[in-house]
């Protein structure tokens, strides 16, 4: 492989960042198919015309060993060597690979499209304790903080007797009388 403007170490750094992305147990030595596809997408190797997600999946399956679901950095380089001429048509293999490396270097897994907490007006309206009415209003103090158990009027009686039993606490007296 012709050494160009990009060092293999820089590409390997990027490989490691994607290898550990979304996997707490990952060592950074191997890349799974999902993260390989993500790398290709985030680094714009997949352009939708020359290289599609299908191409990336096929190349991944081709370079990985039969029984495993991950590729090493060496296999990753093989995969890039196969994708490069597709992505940069009309260039020599080395040139295309260098340009592909250029796309990858310095990139990190982007977190675009990650679900954020939606702060909708409806949620604000529903959780505004100043607008509560009736018995619900009693459950919050003036600052809007919940009073917890103290805010409830009907605190359950756990004395062991049937609820609202009039003769509670009179058992001992009855026993003495007998």
Automatic annotation (TrEMBL):
Question: Per the record's keyword annotation, is Heme included, yes or no?
Answer: yes
Sorted keywords for this record are:
Cytoplasm, Heme, Iron, Metal-binding
Q: What does the entry give for GO biological process? A: axon extension; microtubule bundle formation; microtubule polymerization; positive regulation of protein polymerization
Cross-referenced SUPFAM superfamilies, in alphabetical order? EF-hand (SSF47473)
Give the matching InterPro entries.
Answer: Cyt_c-like_dom (IPR009056), EF-hand-dom_pair (IPR011992), TPP/p25 (IPR008907)
Give the family, as the similarity comment puts it.
Belongs to the TPPP family.
Protein's name in the database: Tubulin polymerization-promoting protein family member 2
Species of origin reads: Seriola lalandi dorsalis
Mind giving the lineage of the organism this protein is from? Eukaryota, Metazoa, Chordata, Craniata, Vertebrata
């Amino acid at each position: 492989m012709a050494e160009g403007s990009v060092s293999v170490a820089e590409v390997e750094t990027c490989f490691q960042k994607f290898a550990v992305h979304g996997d707490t147990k990952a060592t950074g030595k191997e890349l799974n198919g999902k993260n390989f596809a993500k790398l290709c997408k985030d680094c714009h190797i997949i352009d939708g015309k020359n290289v599609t997600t299908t191409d990336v999946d096929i190349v991944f399956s081709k370079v990985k060993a039969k029984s495993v679901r991950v590729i090493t950095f060496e296999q990753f380089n093989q995969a890039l060597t196969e994708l490069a001429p597709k992505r940069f048509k009309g260039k020599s293999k080395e040139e295309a690979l260098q340009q592909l490396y250029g796309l990858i270097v310095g990139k990190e897994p982007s977190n675009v499209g990650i679900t954020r907490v939606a702060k909708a007006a409806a949620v604000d309206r529903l959780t505004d304790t100043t607008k509560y009415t009736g018995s619900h209003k009693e459950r919050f103090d003036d600052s809007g903080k919940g009073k917890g158990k103290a805010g409830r009027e009907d605190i359950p009686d756990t004395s062991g007797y049937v609820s609202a039993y009039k003769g509670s606490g009179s058992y001992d007296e009855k026993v003495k009388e007998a």
